[in-house]
Amino acid sequence: MKIHLLTADVYNKIAAGEVVDRPYSVVKELVENAIDAGATEIAVEIEAGGKSLIRVTDNGCGIEKEDLKNAYAPHATSKLARAEDLFGVKTLGFRGEALASIAAVSEMEIVSKTAAGEAYALSCNGGVLGQLAPAAGANGTQVCVKNLFFNTPARLKFLRSDSHEEGDVAAMIARFILSRPEISFVYEANGKTRYRSYGDGLRAALAAVYGAEVLSHLCEIDAAKHGVRLHGFIGDRNYSKPNRTYQSLFVNGRYVVNQTLASAIANAYASYLMKRQYPFYVLFLDVPPEIVDVNVHPNKADVRFADHNLIYGNVYSIVSAVLDGNSRALEYVVPEQGRAKPAPAAPPAQPAPAPSAPQPTMSYAEAKKELGFDIPLYAGSATVPRRMPQKPVFEVQAPAPQSDAFEENKKFLRAQEQSAKQQRVDPAALAFKGELFRTYLIYECGDDAYLVDQHAAHERLIYDRLRAKWEAREVVSQPMLAPYVAELNAQEHAFLAKNYEILREIGFEIEDFGGTSAKISAVPSDLMGMDLPAFLQEVLSSMESLRAIKLTDILKDKLATAACKAAVKGGARLTEAEARSLLEKMDGDMGLKCPHGRPVAVHLTRSELEKLFKRIV
Fold first, then answer.
1. Which of 2, 35, 170, 350 could form a Cys-Cys staple with 490, CB 3.0–4.6 A?
2. Chain mean position to CA 249
């Protein structure tokens, strides 16, 4: 076996596969560099979801003329000098891979100017450097990335639609706005401004991303325990979202997706939220750099803690105390009048400092002992904290011998078919014998009697008719007196926009309404008066499993409600002709169930009745 030494263009493309997988990851790396350069103003522009253009402009400290060439070199960074520096990383970037990786798979140009120098530009086309040349530019850096993955067609083929990629970029920008509320951000997609913030604090950043009305549902917290600090905003007990895109966690200013933290917060909310509902939170965890490892993966999306249980216990106890409203919550909740003013922005020439963590107030052993009571165990940890409840250990049973699955399926289908035949009766053979309580219709056939719930039967027939119309797209739209405007986040907007045509096919008039909002001007006439916010919640919950909208699933409850309203009610007297007509429309199917699952008919035999009267034993 021959061992090859890879050339720079090959190993840079391999590195790009880990660091740069889609446009949003390019934006992430470039914005992190701008933040580390001390920028107070950052502008991001993209076109075609970032596939054709990504431009990031900042007013940071800039790059010296002599260093521009090194910026494209792999493993070149201004943020680390020694291996020991990895144990105290305070910047967002540090690996020195991003620019080289991006340049290897795109047409890239950097224009930069320091406060004391002139502006210079250097391009790199697919990893091939151009010539350093003077340029025009203000203090700071502008990085322009065009035709991403133009030389790696396999990677380009797997990119998603422009709207989907744009939504993921917008979601990334939203998290930068939240994580750095002291920085002014502008984000434009295809010439339209999607986000704009002014660097005037976290509350203003929340309003810029989610709308000002969200603030009335949030609680601001600031807690220091056992050497770590948890601060930010959490939704109240009654405020939930249909998916996890409203959850942001930042560790020492870095956005992460971490199972320890997510599990702690989810368990704290567990008793307050319904199934398929998720909490809202924007939380910052500040810890000493030496107890967290940020060098877990090239994309820096996760971190590793020195003690997961200590972190889990801290976060769980703080969040649950606030939600439960116990006495400790007074220490954690920030009162309205006590909210701090936004911190002043860092000067452009200096790197933005990482948040300082509070000093430990007790020993490590004491902290573990205090956290050992009444905290659900973090399942992802290899160790179990003292006094925490243990999960039961289940013995794994060997699987029982299985019969032929194909034969079992055939038996099941035959049984279903036979049951359906037994539950169907010829309507002409049924004699109408009257009604009970103006709700239940009585029919007789030989030695069998049937009681039919007139409301449930009519409801099911209407539901089947409406559903057939929906599936055939034979619906009529009804304009609304006042359009409904849905305020969405970037990922929800991208998901909904992708399904606009499906919604229009079934009678909704829906379109963009600026930023990440959507406007609904008409609804299907059969569903006039429906709860639109609840309907959109159900649609957006589809994002959790990343599946496309399945209209028959999402609209089932809405159709059932419409059928229920239109069906004849219990207590309404039907004539014999109307009762006969209802039976004929049922086609004698006594096994029907209403859309909510209740039986339409009950079957009684003569012998069952005689047993009730003790005529037979």
1. 170
2. 13
